[in-house]
Specification:
This protein has 350 residues and is an alpha+beta fold. Helix content is 23%, strand content 44%.
Length: 350
């Protein structure tokens, strides 16, 4: 009996020794983690939406007469105008020549008649002051002058139809091809110009944001063709009415596009900035663990992972503000935190 008790005691001692050895071994294991020093920075809270960008100015120039077509040169490029050329208001794009049409306007004759009636009016004014003519004579001279002036202005308008001139600054986005000197019919499209230095976008916004989104708020816009660039816009108008079918309200966004990165018709992702905080503790959202005690993260202090309970504030798709639980220069675990427990030993690999 004593022998059995001795054997049992030895077995327990051996088991306890092995267990202590295993615990000591486990205690020495260092979990690999990646850390990042917390730096204060700004964070923005925004509402996502999408829409199509349109040019602020757009005009299609058509032939108002039937005449021979001559495409003019782009003075900056030294060649005829092409698609994609930037153009200034007042630039000559094409000429429409028709001698019979020009002769019928009688511009020279009308201009000469204007000069004669102007001279006659001045003469009548001088005579009237001296009592040499009646008021009726003076008014008749005035009527003749005004009629002659109207005729010249009308002639100029008729002649203007022979010149296709850009009425706005912009970019040529359509330029149908016609052989030089070929006849084009009245109503033929000569060119289309778009001004998309500034653009606009109509968006439909969820009803729940009607008290959150306000005119003047900054909007950050991106397109998949320009992933590295963010274009800035602003909310300009908001409808006070809710669409009963879609439960949305309409908003208008003005977009500054100085480098012409956005093109008319592009599908755009828009982030409407509704709140902002500067000099805040900001961390990635994906490193937060949900515990019974609340939201937690791990920080490293002298090789030990310490669990911190945090209180959060503003957030967006990727980041979140920490208002309590972390401070500047804390070394926060951003990788390898999934298997950690409080007071675990860690090895920083990056």
């Amino acid at each position: 009996m004593k022998k059995n008790i001795f054997i049992f005691a030895v077995a327990i001692a051996l088991f306890a020794g092995c267990r202590n050895q295993e615990q000591n071994l486990n205690a020495d294991i260092e979990s690999p983690v990646t850390v990042e020093n917390i730096k204060l920075k700004s964070i923005e809270e925004f509402i996502n939406t999408t829409g199509t960008a349109f040019p602020k100015g757009e005009i299609t120039l058509k032939s108002k007469i039937t005449a021979s077509y001559y495409l003019e040169k782009n003075p900056e490029a030294g060649r005829v105008w092409q698609l994609g050329d930037k153009i200034k208001a007042g630039a000559l794009i094409a000429r429409l020549e028709d001698k019979e049409y020009v002769n019928s306007i009688k511009m020279a004759t009308n201009q000469l008649n204007l000069e004669l009636t102007e001279t006659e009016l001045k003469k009548q004014e001088s005579l009237y002051e001296k009592g040499g003519v009646t008021l009726k004579d003076l008014k008749t001279a005035g009527i003749n002058y005004e009629n002659a002036k109207t005729t010249v202005e009308s002639s100029k308008l008729q002649l203007d139809k022979t010149y296709i001139i850009a009425p706005i600054d912009g970019v040529i986005v359509d330029l149908p091809y016609y052989t030089q000197s070929t006849q084009v019919e009245t109503g033929s499209t000569i060119a289309k110009i778009m001004d998309y230095h500034v653009m606009y976008m109509d968006v439909q916004l969820p009803e729940k944001y009607i008290s959150v989104i306000k005119p003047g708020q900054v909007v950050k816009l991106t397109n998949y063709t320009i992933p590295g660039d963010t274009i800035i816009g602003n909310i300009t108008q908001l409808s006070p009415a809710i669409n009963a079918d879609t439960r949305t309200f309409k908003g208008n966004i003005s977009i500054n596009n100085p480098k012409y990165l956005l093109r008319p018709g592009m599908f755009v992702k828009a982030d409407i900035v509704t709140n902002q905080q500067d000099s805040a503790v900001v961390i990635p959202k994906n490193i937060i663990l949900s515990r019974q005690r609340g939201k937690t993260v791990f920080v490293v202090d002298r090789g030990i992972a310490v669990e911190r309970i945090i209180e959060t504030g503003l957030e967006n798709n990727n980041e979140i503000e920490v208002r309590k639980g972390l401070i500047k220069n804390d070394r926060i675990v951003i990788s390898g935190f999934e298997t950690l427990s409080n007071k675990s030993k860690v090895k920083i690999i990056k």
